[in-house]
Amino acid sequence: GLVVYVFLLTLRRNQVLSEALLAGILVIVVYSLARMYIFGGILSNAYQEGMQIMKEQMPVFLDNEYMQFSTRMWETMMPAFWGVGQIFALLIGYFIFHRTIHIPFVPGDVKFTVFFNILILAALPLYLFEATKALFINSLIL
Q1: Angle at 36 between CA 33 and CA 37, to 5 degrees
Q2: Which of 25, 78, 98, 130 supports an S-S bond with 105, CB 3.0-4.6 Å?
Q3: pLDDT for 110-127, tens place per residue?
Q4: pTM of the model as a whole
């Protein structure tokens, strides 16, 4: 919905397919991070419930240390798990869009604006603070 709308709006305004792709990716990144904050508690509880059921059914395979580690990793990487899949789906759609409008896809033609580099540089200071390390990891993965 929103990603396609932003993609087509950017494409119509700028007439550059790679900028439209970047705009769609940015919408997915923002939505992934917002989703983490909105549904993070619910998803974390569901994951812990599932791990508890696994621990009851297969106690040999799971110990408390592993459960704590995997729960921490799950909570840290949650936006990236969903976002990477969505970005991959957008990329497949981008290839199909190229084929539909009969423009050959040339990987060398995909160029992102300077704005993309500024976003990467803006994410680097997030590593310095303990509270924002999860956001830093997710932003680099996405």
Answers
A1: 95
A2: 98
A3: 666 666 677 777 777 777
A4: 0.68
